Amino acid sequence: MFVLGIDPGLSRCGYGCVSRTSDGYAAVAAGVLTTSPEEAIPIRLARLRKDLYELIEELRPDVVVVERIFFRSNARTAMAVGQASGIALLTAVESGCQVAEYTAAEVKLAVTGYGNATKEQVQQMVTRLAKLEQVPKPPDAADALALAICHLGASPWAQERAVIA
Predict the structure, then answer these.
(1) Is 140 part of the annotated catalytic residue set?
(2) How far apart are CA 12 and CA 66, in angstroms?
(3) Gap between the Cα atoms of 143 and 44, Å rounded
(4) Which residue out of 67, 94, 143, 160 is catalytically annotated?
(5) Residue ranges per domain, the chain?
(6) pTM score above 0.85
(7) Among this protein's residues, is 23 annotated catalytic?
(8) Model confidence over 37-53: pLDDT tens digits?
């Protein structure tokens, strides 16, 4: 199974593609899609959708996993992340991919064994699990890889959570 994790954000949208190997996981691609805060939000959303569509077309994942948004404060940030999340979900479904969502706590628990792990702990475990030579940068890319690893590690339970497009 080939899984694309998406850490949604309007300014920086992390992505990480992971496949299962005979001895664990392999990171295939990771990075960040960016939009300029100088542009109007509709233009940024359209650019993000175009970039995500091209990424999905290039990588051809079986499943796209998007972080489920959970905010306690800062409604402004929540709105932008929610918009980016919606674009990621829509683009994945339109591309014919299965879609799954996990909260940050679920991902941290799956990757580190502790639901309140720090970003640094998640980055270190992603590095170990995907057998990378160095910590993925920026953190958005590491978070996206963690989402993909979470989904792969949760299978077959994850199959029940995936929405088939």
Answers:
(1) yes
(2) 14
(3) 22
(4) 67
(5) 2-161
(6) yes
(7) no
(8) 999 999 999 999 999 99
